[in-house]
């Protein structure tokens, strides 16, 4: 009888331990984060996941997809978090936000930008490497027809090559429409890379060989911190013209530079309501672009997995991420990082 009592007491004690030490929500399904396939997106995602897992005791995982499919999934609550959301850039996001299905939290990376770029040596030359200026008068997208032979497409004689984003990215649609709006379809090929890594590889290879290359890119990224690049001028931003660029079916897109960049964390509305503490944390995320670009460059050069790079960033810059969360949460995360 005493043995049964001891066993029952032990069982109750164990149950009490489980119910008190482990958060109630730990048994719930994981929070689904978007698996973003570019460096800054993957690094930011893992920083957020580490804090959610270690600081708040919530399980997470990632689900892959293109920008557009992931935004659709967020609107349906099939995923709950997009760690790097360029909010307001796609019709999918705009519609979902207007319907109250998604929300953008915070201003996570100030100084972010995107546009069309060329290496500095294309315009100014590089005497140290014996490179002469090939397009000394290139300043704006309106100058590009004059220099189509400089950026010659190896597969299409008489046309230049513009390196666009991979298919499935919102920026790919915008850039395709810009080629039409800027009157460049007759002089440039719209070359879509198979992935973000393939786009990086082609740009990097051209720069290492001192070859001219015209491409779309954005910041925060390791590429912009590693090479001397010049962004081409575009017409001033016009909100109505921007709508024609984000609509892939619009036959008459109008010229404008891209919507001013604001990076945030995209969440589904059900997630926002269910996890107010996580929502508050997300709204405070602020990643200085200098340390972030440096971390991205190291991650790229050393081929460091995003999770490992995120841990290294958090160890090197505790003053950054600890400002986003309560002290007790920061202490839990710090203990796990050691």
List the SSEs and their pairings:
Layout: H1 2-21, E1 31-35, H2 39-56, E2 60-64, H3 67-75, E3 81-86, H4 91-98, E4 102-105, E5 113-119, H5 120-124, E6 160-164, H6 170-181, E7 188-192, H7 196-208, E8 214-219, H8 222-226, E9 229-231, H9 239-246, E10 263-268, H10 269-274, H11 276-283, H12 289-302, H13 306-316, H14 318-321, H15 327-337
Parallel strand pairs: 1-2, 6-7, 6-8
Antiparallel strand pairs: 3-10, 4-10, 5-8, 5-9
Helix pairs in contact: 2-13, 2-15, 3-4
Give an overview of the whole structure.
The two termini are about 45 Å apart. The longest helix has 20 residues, at about 1-20. The protein has 2 domains: about 25-110 and about 260-335, 3-Layer(aba) Sandwich (D-Maltodextrin-Binding Protein, domain 2), CATH 3.40.190; about 115-245, D-Maltodextrin-Binding Protein, domain 2. A 5-stranded mixed sheet has the order 7-6-8-5-9, with helices on both faces. The protein has helices spanning about 1-20, 40-55, 65-75, 90-100, 120-125, 170-180, 195-210, 220-225, 240-245, 270-275, 275-285, 290-300, 305-315, 320, 325-335, and strands spanning about 30-35, 60-65, 80-85, 100-105, 115-120, 160-165, 190, 215-220, 230, 265-270. With about 350 residues, it is of the alpha/beta class. It contains 15 helices and 10 strands.
């Amino acid at each position: 009888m005493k043995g049964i009592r001891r066993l029952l007491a032990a069982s109750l004690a164990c149950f009490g331990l489980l119910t008190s030490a482990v958060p109630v929500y730990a048994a719930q399904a994981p929070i689904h984060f978007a698996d973003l396939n570019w460096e800054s997106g993957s690094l930011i995602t893992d920083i957020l996941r580490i804090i959610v897992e270690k600081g708040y005791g919530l399980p997470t995982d990632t689900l892959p997809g293109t920008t557009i499919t992931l935004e659709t999934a967020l609107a349906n609550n099939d995923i709950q978090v997009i760690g790097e959301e360029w909010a307001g850039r796609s019709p999918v996001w705009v519609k979902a936000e207007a319907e109250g299905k998604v929300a953008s939290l915070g201003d996570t990376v100030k100084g972010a930008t995107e546009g069309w770029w060329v290496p500095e040596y294309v315009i100014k030359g590089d005497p140290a490497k014996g490179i002469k200026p090939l397009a000394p008068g290139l300043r704006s997208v309106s100058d590009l027809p004059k220099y189509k032979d400089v950026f010659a497409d190896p597969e299409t004689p008489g046309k230049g090559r513009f390196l666009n984003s991979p298919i499935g990215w919102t920026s790919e649609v915008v850039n395709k429409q810009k080629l039409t709006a800027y009157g460049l379809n007759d002089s440039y090929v719209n070359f879509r890379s198979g992935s973000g890594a393939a786009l990086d590889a082609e740009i990097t290879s051209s720069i290492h060989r001192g070859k001219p290359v015209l491409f779309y890119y954005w910041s925060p990224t390791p590429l912009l911190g590693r090479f001397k690049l010049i962004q081409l001028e575009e017409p001033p931003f016009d909100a109505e013209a921007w709508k024609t660029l984000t609509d892939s079916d619009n036959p008459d897109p109008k010229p404008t530079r891209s919507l001013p960049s604001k990076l945030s964390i995209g969440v589904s509305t059900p997630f926002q309501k269910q996890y107010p503490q996580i929502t508050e944390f997300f709204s405070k995320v602020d990643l200085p672009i200098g340390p972030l670009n440096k971390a991205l460059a190291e991650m790229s050069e050393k081929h460091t997995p995003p999770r490992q790079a995120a841990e290294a960033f958090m160890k090197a810059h505790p003053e950054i991420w600890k400002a986003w969360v309560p002290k007790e949460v920061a202490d839990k995360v710090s203990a796990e990082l050691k």
